Amino acid sequence: MSDSQTLYAADYLITQNDARDIIEQAALVVQGNRIVSVGHRDLLEVMFPDAAQVQLGKAVIMPGLINAHTHVSMSLLRGYSDDKTLMDWLQQDIFPQEAKLSPELVELGARFSMAEMLRTGTTAFFDMYMHERSVFRAADEMGLRGVLGENITQYFPTVSCRDEEAYAELVRSLADEWRNHPRLRQAVLPHAPYTTNPALLRRCRELATETGALFGMHLAETKSETAACLKEHGLRPVPYCESLGLLQADSVFFHCVEVDAHDITILAEHRCCAVHNPASNMKLASGVAPVEAMLRNRVPVALGTDGPASNNAQNMLREMYVAALLHKVDALNPTACPAQLVLDMATRHGSEVLHDPLIGTLEPGMKADFIALSLEEPHMQPVHNIVSNVVYAATGMENKLTVVDGRELYREGRFLCCDYEALCAEMRQAQAWARR
Ligand SMILES: [Zn+2]
Q1: Which residues in 54-77 are b (16+ Cβ under 10 Å) and which e?
Q2: What is the pLDDT of residue 436?
Q3: How many Å lie between the centroid of ligand 1 and the Cα of residue 329?
Q4: Do 287 and 376 lie in a common domain?
Q5: Is 1's pLDDT higher than 70?
């Protein structure tokens, strides 16, 4: 670990620790990739006289946001198809485009989304797509933290695997290439119950265990998925997964819109996590996940944007706002999903889904993943309750600093980990690909 220390000071700091302490006139000291101290600025300036200082002024330092479910490379298809049902959207527009994807395009889409995430305060993400080696490469180079995995369906040959054996080989080789990486970890990710079969799902489960990867899948996203699962397998999606032995403590399920009380009990018994994607669920009119019921029953629920083609942003501040409002109108109860709960979903619960206990809070010993939102814009003033400003007023564009693993990746309009202008030029060129 490097000996040099940096002290970041700001008017407010949201720790997200167990007591949910908020510190005014605060500072955070970083050494190497870890936080060594969090406290009052005056005190820490005395305790760490040799630390380089970054005075952020009227700003709030807070944990980097964790996007627990996305498909980053789908930035290529942002705005390509909107206002359709999930099945029409997938089958008419998305799947045909994805069949033409190359590793180079996947990498470009990934880099573009990573720039958006860094700009809007996300430091870690859980990604699922094809040609995922390209996403590993992009995340490694750009400096974000993530759990990444190749998505698989039963419709071989897929865009990246000619058959099941090729998928197994890919998972094993990614495991070898990225084992012990300080920021990146692999997951085995079958697409959904309706695009796989029991044998493939069991194989995926075995591969996850064999390679030490996490396991995840889209699950219980729509009523039609539940109806199809009942018709084909005689079980609702969650008991179907239980019957195949898929539910283990390393398993995470994306969406979980269509889960009833019994399904929630099963997820809790097996210590599985869920990820809520409110904007995507609203846009595709999939429904409203019973987030508070899952949390009450000890199923950790994190927050995700889903891909940029069904959201259409990779902006977790916007996602928190949507989540907080959706559950109030759904329950006709303004006390549903309060601001602090939503912030917990985007930080602490994200750490559970990524199985990284050293992210999600700002405390000594934790990894130095944090952001700083400016409080100088009109919509961020006054500050009666800083968590309220973050969840209900912030847009993402007030973020002025994104640090991952102790490294500044974005600061005040400048991307320090990529040539943003070149990236934009490449994206403009890639637009022609979607029209072919
Ligand atoms: Zn998804």
Answers
A1: bebeebbbbbbbbbbbbbbbbbbb
A2: 61
A3: 24
A4: no
A5: no
